[in-house]
Structures are given as structure tokens and as C-alpha cells.
């Protein structure tokens, strides 16, 4: 009956999936794993806007229904609560694979289980990072192989580790600690890239790999521990901004709409990658705190805290490859992008406070 269901789904797919959209392009059916998350939900908005059919797969580990609730009732939108660590059968044209617990707060989540997860799969809790990266990516690649879909992996600049090359080009192999506290994320993504390339070479799956640098914007988790969300939430709540270490470490911050445009350009283009997708503007954490202060509250203060282990000292993408081959580059500076995130955070923090009082 499984076979029968598959055949039925495929038949339906070929009826609904071939409806022309605009001029010269048929409507695509697209899966976005992690589509209820921060980046995923913005990507879903863009795909729905341009007329495609979108199926979101999310287990709501860090994502929220609220991020996609505005599409409920749209016949071109579907939301499936599902853990990508488990297999799933769908008939689709493209797979954007974003599902991954991406917040640093979760890095240290039960590290022993994280290691063992490679060996004994049933033993593992469903939000395990390494397992999601490995088993989740494997399942989505298996799906892509079966139905001939194009598969895009959202990898990360963390594959460069604490880089010895600056800025980082895609040709750099990275400097990652394999046994550190954040290794389950870094190595999980590195393994996911390896899997994607193996399916590309071995099974002819059309693969696309994005290496995403720090991204911010509306709908980010309020308390997931990333630096931009921390500083913005702290400044709004009139708390000191927590600078880890001496604050001289650098990052490059990309506004979410720039990233989404890059992901779509990569998916639609002819190149496998990997491609760095990030904004080359580089800021120390002290400089970032200054910008947040300018944008939100000139009386905001900072407070120093000990840094986490293996924290990369600097990070800045070299995006020449994406510029040349995808004709893509980010358009929105930190000072332009931050205010959009701030108004979203202000509303959500206000609602939270009202919720507490009620
Ligand atoms: P996010 O946490 O907001 O989104 C991840 C989504 O995946 C969430 O909705 C979560 O519920 C879902 N998810 C997690 N595990 C799952 C599982 N096993 N099955 C199904 N769904 C699952 O994070 P984000 O910032 O939107 O990140 C999206 C992707 O981009 C991730 O793969 C992340 O590693 C990558 N990335 C993000 C950044 C960034 O700065 N935001 C940087 C580099 C890479
Ligand atoms: N898979 C899936 N959906 C599909 C096809 C495959 O979830 O439509 C899963 C499958 O269960 C397996 C993984 O993807 O765990 C890899 O599949 P593949 O066919 O490449 O490998 P095999 O099943 O032969 O090990
Ligand atoms: N960081 C900080 N204060 C915070 C949270 C993070 O100074 O409240 C620092 C962190 O030590 C790191 C940088 O900000 O050097 C970026 O951290 P994030 O977790 O946002 O991203 P990643 O380390 O993955 O690049």
C-alpha cells in the first residue's frame, strides 16, 4: 500500500505540479525543512509570494507556528509536524534543507548522546544536533534521490572553525576542533556537506550548498543566545548588553532578506557550490554594541562576561564567488537592517510582558 500511496501522490503531483506560473515557468512544489524557523519562514514567504507550492516540515524545536501562521488557509501552503531524523515520503521538485537546532544555547545539549547518536539511533532524543545534521540530511538526500528533486543544504561559516585565513574563501578547509563543545554543530554541518557531495557524485542528486554567515532579522528567537538577538533584547529590556570575552572578536552580520535572495539564486542557478552567503561588513562585538546603542537606546550599557570555549576570533566572508557565479550580493547594511528587527522584538517583548502580567 506504500507503493500505491506513492503512486497516487505522484499522479496528483504531476497534475497540480505542472500548472504554469507567470510566463515560461511551471509552479514548483517545494519542501522547506525548518520552515517554521527564523530563516525558513522568510524563505517560505518569498516562495509563496512568487506563486509556488510550499510544504514546511518542522518539529517546532526552535521554530514557531506563529512564524508561518499568515499562510494558514492558503491552498498552496502546507505545514507538517515531523522530525527529519525520521524518513518521509513526498513528491517534490526542490528541497531547501534548513532543519537544524542552530542556537549556541543548544550546543552543549547532552554531548554524550550527541556522539553516540552516530552509532545507536533509537537511543537519541529528537532534538539532537549531530543526529539532525546527519540523519536528517541523509533522509532529505534519500528523498531527493528518489523523486529527482534538487536539494539545497544550509551549511554554515562554522565549518571554517577558528579560521587561520581571513577573510574566508570557499576553498579554505577550516580549523575546527573535533572534540570541543561546539563540535556537534560544526562537525555535523561538515558531515552534512560530505553527505550532500557523496549523493551528488554517487547518485546524481542535484545539490546546492550554502555556507551561511551570521544572519539577523525579525522572527529570530528572543532568547537563543546569539549575539544580535541578545544585545537587542537586552537593550529593549533596559539590561546591560553582555559582551563575552574582550569584545574584540569579529563577525559579519547579514540581514535575512539578503540571505533569502542568495538561497533562491543558488537553488535556481547551475552551480553546486559551496557558496559563502554573508555580508562582508565586519564588526567587533564592542562595535556591534555601539550600533545597537545608536539604534535603540543611547543610554544602553555593556557588561563583560567570560567567553565560551573555542570562540572563533574573527569571521568575514569572501563573497567573490557568489558575486560572480550567482550575481548575488547583500544590499542591506547593519544600520539599515537592525531597525526592522528592533520593531519586531519590541512588539514581542511587549506581548511577553503583558502575558506575564495577565
Ligand atoms: P532556527 O532555529 O530558527 O530554524 C531551524 C528550524 O529547524 C526550526 O524551526 C526548528 O524547529 C527546525 N528543526 C530543528 N530540528 C529539526 C528536526 N530534527 N526536524 C524538523 N525540524 C527541525 O534557525 P535559523 O537561524 O533559521 O537557521 C536555519 C538554517 O540556517 C540552519 O540549518 C542553520 O544551521 C543555518 N544557519 C543559520 C545561521 C544564522 O545566523 N541564522 C548561520 C549559519 C547557518
Ligand atoms: N528516505 C526518505 N524518503 C524518501 C526516500 C528515502 O526519507 O522518499 C530516507 C530513507 O529512509 C533512508 C535515507 O533517506 O534512510 C537514504 O535513502 P537512500 O535511498 O539513499 O538509502 P538506503 O535507503 O538505500 O539506505
Ligand atoms: N557573544 C557576546 N555576547 C552575547 C552572545 C554572544 O559577546 O550575549 C559573542 C560570542 O562570544 C561570539 C559572537 O558574539 O564571539 C557571536 O556569537 P553568536 O553565538 O551570535 O554566533 P557565532 O559564534 O555562531 O558566530
TrEMBL record:
The pathway this protein participates in, as annotated, is: Nucleotide-sugar biosynthesis; UDP-alpha-D-xylose biosynthesis; UDP-alpha-D-xylose from UDP-alpha-D-glucuronate: step 1/1
Which cofactor is recorded for it?
NAD(+)
Protein family per UniProt: Belongs to the NAD(P)-dependent epimerase/dehydratase family. UDP-glucuronic acid decarboxylase subfamily.
Instruction: Identify the keywords attached in UniProt to this record, alphabetized.
Output: Decarboxylase, Golgi apparatus, Lyase, Membrane, NAD, Transmembrane, Transmembrane helix
Q: What protein name applies here?
A: UDP-glucuronate decarboxylase
Lipid bilayer topology: Single-pass type II membrane protein
Q: Which GO terms describe its cellular component?
A: Golgi cisterna membrane
Where do the NAD(P)-binding domain residues begin and end?
Answer: 32-341
